[in-house]
Amino acid sequence: MKRFTSLIWMGLLTGCGGLFHSDTTPVAGGLVAQHGKLQVIGRQLSDAKGVPMQLRGVSLFWINWHEENLKSSAVDFMAKNMGATVVRIPVPAFEYVKGGASWDAQMRLIASWIRSAGIYAIIDWHMEDDPNKYLESASKFWDKTSDFFAGDPHVLYEICNEPKSVDWSEIKSYAKTIIPIIRKNDSNTVIIVGTPEWSRRTTYAAADPLTVDNHGDSIKNIMYTYHGYAGTHLMADDLIGVLDKVPVFSTEWGVTEASGSGHIDWQKSRHFVDYLNQNPYQKVSWSQWSWVDKNEKSALLKPGTGGLSWNLSEVGDSCKVWIREPGQTAYPEFVPKN
After folding, report:
1. CATH code assigned to 37-324
2. What pTM does this model have?
């Protein structure tokens, strides 16, 4: 695979604050400068002052593929043209286990672009398997990542993208191992935990949430993942009995079938984004899959246009509308229903 290693290392030296730590100073006038480091209060993602927040944005495609779409100008377009307040960076676990240094560097470079845009970044350990399969590499990744970004108000950590063929107790075991590794370096960054069946079964977390880690310490600033694809899944109906119990972040969702192509269900997608914003229990943040010019229906870019002028597809245009439509990111008047 063609890699842009020299560019990455140059970016680390000039854009990330250095080789050993990120730049924690928000860009003046940016969203992060306005709202600071995020926290979870009750079920609600909130800003540093406790004001409820709903982030709406874009998930990148796996960063090991379609690298022509990974440019600082792309992040600027997401933030300025689309109005994105969060961008998700999927770091491929199955590639990371073969050697992590280049992936660390690429992830940190992209995070520096997101910082420069003044918005929030989700660092995603992107795997589709039993997360314990990669436990050793995941432990190293999260130790290095949380040390590098400690105190950085721009980031959130998604510790296992889509667990599958594994029950909730085993995901909890993984989380209870990873969370103390992160907390050793970074005491309060929001951590997002995957749920069973490709992170669709958030109901398991609602019934049996994490309370303490393997060290017996109380767990705080934790959210749970919901992933859904409107052409395949129930979407809003999957979250019945969940949002009144635990904090949720829909870090990946799409308008198509779960394959990324097939039938587009516009009606269910419209209802889903409305429900995430308008349900009485919490303002649910989201990032839509995915920023890529691949010839598949979920792609936010027109096929073959990546790296050029960032031409949005029909799906990308709808994503832009849904990001901007509510007209606000902070909701000071919102009081979650008990």
Report:
1. 3.20.20.80
2. 0.95
